[in-house]
Amino acid sequence: MRISEIMNMILPLYRTGTPLTLVGAPGIGKSDTVRKLPDVLSEATGEDFGLVVVEASTLDAPDVIGFLVPTKDPDTGAAVARYTKPDIIRQIERDGRQFGVLFVDEIGQADTLVQKALAPLFIDGKLGEYNIPEGWYVISATNRVEDRAGVNKELSHFTNRQCRVEIDSNIDDWTAWGREAGVHHMLLAFANFRPGVVMSDTVPAKPGPYCTPRSFTAAANFLNELVDGDDERELPADSTTQAVVAGYVGEGTAAEIFAFLKVHNLLPTFAEIVADPEKAMVPPDDRLDAAYAAAGLITAKADHKTVDAAFQYATRLPIELQTSIAATLVRTMAGSALNSPAIAKFVSQHKALILGSITE
Question: What percent of the residues of the chain are helix, what percent strand, and what percent coil, each to the nearest 5?
Answer without folding.
Answer: 55, 15, 30
